[in-house]
Amino acid sequence: MSDGDYDYLIKFLALGDSGVGKTSFLYQYTDGKFNSKFITTVGIDFREKRVVYKSTGPDGSSGKGQKIHMQLWDTAGQERFRSLTTAFFRDAMGFLLLFDLTNEQSFLNVRNWMSQLQIHAYCENPDIVLCGNKCDLSDQRAVSEDEARELAEKYGIPYFETSAANGQNVNQAVDVLLDLIMKRMERCVDKSWIPDGTVRANGNTNADLSESPDKSKCTC
Amino acid sequence: MVDQPVWEQIGSSFVTHYYQMFDSDRSRLGAIYTDASCLTWEGQQFQGKLDIVKKLTSLPFTKIAHSITAQDHQPTPDCCILSMVVGQLKADNDPVMGFHQTFILKNVNDSWVCTNDMFRLALHNFG
């Protein structure tokens, strides 16, 4: 997994209250499994996955696939002992903001997480996908789909109802986040505002990085 | 068998007592601090029994368990005891995390109180 054969390295962070299912969500995404008794090994603090991203032009044509190496970072629960600092958010390009559909407080706290993001992320409007997790527990639901969608619309971010237990919408949520980030990169000719080291063309694939802004210009 | 030095005995019984109380009912920890005691919790400073207990009881977890890996104790020039603890903790269902904690214990009116307490999680990749 750690070999250097990829075009882009992209770092995501999973955020949200303790117990909303961040670790299970990431585990479901990278391994396609759910373990309700999941215990991480001390010292392992992120999961990795390789995907191929195909950009689609406005005319629907799909470009050349790009190999993406994704790092998905999770908190260890240290937010209970101290507030998360800027260092934690460093280098992250995209954010999965989770709440628990069966826990109203975790939904109310989405506002706090959004303001944390605005303070600590690399820019004021980073790419975020909101996920209402545990949608499989429909009999315990405490947050309606409508109010969650309304909040997401207010922030102008996509919303998904997900289940780390059965995998519903887990891949879709991450795919949409990746798409937002790749589109942002394509839009940006001068990449100086992207955090250093998070996105880099790897080895001899350098040409792809410098070409991509031109390509998107052509298709416009 | 050689007896342990007195500071080792006092230090280790304090450490046992402290974490037992922390894990069962941390509102009772006020008993070991004085109004002059200092706590530095993840870089945040608190002084006095009341503020210290307020901080410790406001930590947002319901269950916590500490496991002590190692502890060291030394006598200080002013007849106090300096104690350092390295261990792991588990709060609610979160992953296990390492921590460090350092105490200074002082004998006041024939009982030992904690005058200084410093706590840090041992996490290095999270800033």
Structure description:
The complex is a heterodimer of chains A (220) and B (127). With 220 residues, chain A is an alpha/beta fold. Chain A has a single domain (8-219), classed as P-loop containing nucleotide triphosphate hydrolases (Rossmann fold, 3-Layer(aba) Sandwich), CATH 3.40.50. Chain A has seven helices and six strands. Chain A has helices at residues 22-31, 86-89, 104-108, 110-120, 145-155, 170-187, 206-219, and strands at residues 8-15, 46-56, 62-73, 94-100, 127-133, 159-161. Chain A has a six-stranded mixed sheet with strand order 2-3-1-4-5-6, with helices on both faces. In chain A, strand 2 and strand 3 (62-73) form a beta hairpin. The longest helix of chain A has 18 residues, at 170-187. Chain A starts with 7 loop residues before the first strand and ends with a helix. The model of chain A is unreliable at 38-44 and 203-220 (pLDDT under 50). Chain B has 127 residues and is of the alpha+beta class. Chain B has one domain (6-121): Nuclear Transport Factor 2, Chain: A (Roll), CATH 3.10.450. Chain B has helices at residues 6-24, 49-58; strands at 33-41, 44-47, 64-75, 81-91, 97-108, 111-121. Chain B has a six-stranded mixed sheet with strand order 2-1-6-5-4-3, with helices on one face. In chain B, a hairpin with a 5-residue loop joins strand 4 and strand 5 (97-108). Chain B is globular. Chain A binds chain B through residues 18-19, 23, 39-40, 42, 45, 75-78, 80-82, 84-88, 90, and chain B through 41-44, 59-61, 88, 91-98, 121, 123, 125-127.
What features would you highlight for this structure?
heterodimer; A: 220 residues; alpha/beta; Rossmann fold; six-stranded mixed β-sheet; 7 helices; 6 strands; 33% helix; globular; B: 127 residues; alpha+beta; Nuclear Transport Factor 2, Chain: A; prenylation (chain A); EC 3.6.5.2 (chain A); acetylation (chain A); GTP-binding (chain A); endosome (chain A)
